[in-house]
Amino acid sequence: MKTIFIEDKTQIDEIIRSCEICNLGVIDTENRPYVVPMNFGYHDGYIYMHGADFGKLIDAMKANPQVCVTFCTPVELAAQDAHIACSYRMKGKSVVARGKIEFITDYDKKVDALNILMAQYTDRKFTYNSPAVKNVEVYRLKPEELTAKEFGAPHGNNFPWQVERDRKKSMKDL
Asked: Which of 98, 100, 97, 99 lies closest to 148 in space, CA to CA?
């Protein structure tokens, strides 16, 4: 099985939109990696997230707004050869986005961002009360670097040991 790099923007967008969560990675205030699963919205190339206006994650992003966000589609176990343990691999697609977090402080823009977040999960329309909007931290990432991969893609039946094994199998079937 092999890994294929995906460069087509439409395919990358499809992977992101198909995910239910993303993982937001930051460097905390003690200079250690810290990764949190997050709900998100995706619109016009921006990744939108939200959360409490206090805590370890917010402190880390305010101290160092450089972040990494990852997405991974649901995976499935696949094997090139069911009899060879080393040929097993997870099959799926992933996206890695890196860049600088931008905090959204304008009330109306926060509401717009919250609507983008909710649109990731439902077609319903929502209203928000003022205290909730004022007390939530809303931020977005316009990726400066965006990479994507499909992993566990079939190699084909090109390995010499597979070709020989398959030849022997077909001889038995005759």
From this structure: 97
